[in-house]
Amino acid sequence: MGPASKRKRKVVRREQILEAAVRVFARRGFGNATVAEIAEEADVAAGTIYNYFESKEELFMSIPQLISEPMLATFLKDAFEGNEPTDITGEERLLARSCAKAIETLLQNLDLVKSILASVVTLDDETRAEYFRQPLQALTIMERYFRDRIERGIFREMNTAIVAQAYAVLVIMFVLIQELIRTADVAPLAYEEISQELTKLLLYGIEKR
User: Fold this and answer.
1) Which of 37, 61, 85 is where one domain is finished?
2) Is 112 within the bounds of a domain?
3) Same domain, 136 and 113
4) Considering 18, 45, 61, which residue would you say is the last residue of a domain?
5) What angle do CA 192, 198, 200 make, to 5 degrees?
6) How many domains would you assign to the chain?
7) pLDDT for res 205
8) Which DSSP category does 146 fall into?
9) Residue 50 — pLDDT band, cuts 50, 70, 90?
10) pLDDT band at residue 92 using 50, 70 and 90 as cut-offs
């Protein structure tokens, strides 16, 4: 097996272990989960885990990238790789796609999100800050996007940090309300409609006039 094949195999095995950890943490919570359970879920020897992660804590700290990376990859490609929109209508389509991808990713990892919400309160301040470093990178990229569009004359001047955080909160809260808080007698909203309406709510308050 050549060096490239070995590297690819290591990447695949690392992702396999992380995905197994996601399932175990979602079922058991961070405090109750063990490395042995994660190894069994991943179908590897317990010692193999330590070839990729120093501890259960490092495994837990690595999980946010599974949620944030798919969202970031799609958004970066649409917003900054040469085929980005040149008018407000194009920006609406871009943000609606981004919102839909974020919702899809959150739904795919809903059990993990619930586990994170339950576990994160047990972390100390330093660990909590490190844990959310990767998701916060997404907010930095959103701020960069808004600044870029201001410079192009598509959006008005604004506090990009506030707008980026507000958009993220809107998306996350809608998913949580739909899946965790909504009562049985309240009909769920279609996520496609949510993506479109949240985008319009954000976008047409910041359009340059």
Assistant:
1) 61
2) yes
3) yes
4) 61
5) 105
6) 2
7) 73
8) H
9) very high
10) very high
Has residue 208 been placed in a domain? no
Name the DSSP class of 207: B
Q: Which 3 state secondary structure label does DSSP give 155? A: strand
CA separation for the pair 132, 179 (Å, rounded): 22
CA distance 182 to 180: 6
Is 30 within the bounds of a domain? yes
Structure token digits, residue 50: 């330590």
Strand partners, 155: 207
Nearest partner of 43 among 12, 18, 16, 62, judged by Cα: 16
pLDDT of residue 185: 64
* b/e map 23-55, b = 16+ CB within 10 Å: bbbbeeebeebebebbbebbebeeeebeebbee
Distance in angstroms (rounded) separating the CA atoms of residues 205 and 168: 16
User: d(Cα 180, Cα 183) in Å, to the nearest integer?
Assistant: 9
Encode pLDDT of 109-150 as tens digits.
787 777 677 667 777 777 777 777 777 788 899 999 999 999
CATH code for the domain in which residue 148 is found? 1.10.357.10
By residue range, what is the domain housing residue 173?
63-203
Q: Rounded CA gap, 1 and 100, in Å?
A: 40
Asked whether residue 20 falls in the same domain as residue 94, the answer is: no
